[in-house]
Amino acid sequence: MSGISKYRKIHYSWVVTLGASLVFFLSAGLSGGTFTIFLPGLINVMNLSYSQVSLIPTLSGFVGLFAMFFVRPIINRIGIRRTIFIGGLLITIGTLITATLKSVIILYVGGLIIGLGLGLCSTIPISMLIVRWFDKSIGFAIGLSYAGSGVAVIIGSPIFTYIIMKFGLRAGYIGLAISILTTTILAALLIKDYPKDKGLLPYGFIEDENKVKSQNQDFSDEYLYLETTDKETNRFHLLLVVLVILSIPIKSTVSHMSSILISKGVDSYLAMNMVSIFGLSMVISKMGYGFIMDKLGTYKTIIITFPIWLLTLLLYFVLDKSIILVVLYSFIIGIGPAIGTVPIAVWVSELFSKRNIEKNLTLSQIFLNFGAAIGISILGIFVDITGDYSFGMIFMTGLTLISFGIIIYLYKSNNCRN
């Protein structure tokens, strides 16, 4: 077969998926997902407002957006694995700078460097990696990769909560930096840029020598064949709007989760440990979302999952110190990050032509992260102005309803109901 080996018992694509999962473990999980644990400490120890603290991930988000514009050129020059490794190093450096806790300006500088690293370890290189390594089970592979962030929250939340309570906020950040660096090294060791680097074809690829691409080609290139119309361009712009208003409530609610529980009278230690329950839910939701999407189709999965997320937002208004409600809220909130990550590449692939697939994927991730960046600050501003989360949660519920309606419209108008 021209030097390309037969499939092995365990295809190396799943090892690459594990490496991709570690990337989300260190970026969206350790660096991003545990922010809610550090948020109350930053407010109390450094005497900052919700808006001031919320500005840290907002700055990270905007710098990450800036970095995303250069991810593909960087990958074309040095490859996915090296790009991710550099990103992990930047996140580590930014976290160590934050650990000094010298001033709010230093926190912002640390946040800027973290954001640059997060941009390089974003969904863009991971999506490209999964597309290169898989020809089938793409939804499940993406869900499995994204689940790494949930695993990080499950493991990291109790550990860093204990460190913060026992040794202080600075020790928590130092431990976080060490964990991020360790995971970065492990991910770099596992990831290979192309199946050919291991003498393989993508998982599920039909073994036809005529379909084997040259060394510098991406296996997804064979699908670039349809023309883009003005109508489709307008519909894609509408999807970009959807991604912004969808990610605002998801990112803001998740990032403020601990503070939301504390505002309802929940003990601060319990509230911080509930992040582990949220992490477990993220793992189940992201893996389950990809699996359900492969089995039932994207449209039916949207119909099932969006109402659950809406109920999660509405649950805030009946939330109190009841342990049952606290655990329920902490668990079902995990459906939000699944909706905001796993199906995006599939939406772009199913709703639009494949000619500009990589460009569309990049733009979709940029707009998604733009919404996430501003969402945290928007909720913080609501709290500072009104004194609680109620008006902010009403606003977030409204945005979710709008995004739900538009994505349903896009699928119905494109006859993609499956």
What would you say about this model in short?
This protein is mostly helical and 418 residues long.
What are the defining features of this structure?
about 0% strand; Growth Hormone, Chain: A; globular; about 75% helix; mainly alpha; about 425 residues
Give structural notes.
The two termini are 37 Å apart. Helix content is 76%, strand content 0%. It is globular, with a radius of gyration of 21 Å. The protein has 18 helices and no strands. It has 418 residues and is mainly α. Helix 11 (257-263) packs across helix 12 and helix 13 packs antiparallel against helix 18. The relative contact order is 0.15. The chain has a single domain (12-204, 222-413), classed as Up-down Bundle (Growth Hormone, Chain: A), CATH 1.20.1250.20.
Q: What is the global morphology?
A: globular
CA-to-CA gap between the ends? 37 Å
Q: Can you summarize the main beta sheet?
A: none
CATH names the topology as Growth Hormone, Chain: A
Radius of gyration equals 21 Å
Q: Oligomeric form of this entry?
A: single chain
Poorly predicted residue ranges: 1-8, 208-228
**Total of DSSP H or I helical runs spanning 4+ residues:** 18
DSSP, total strands: 0
CATH architecture term: Up-down Bundle
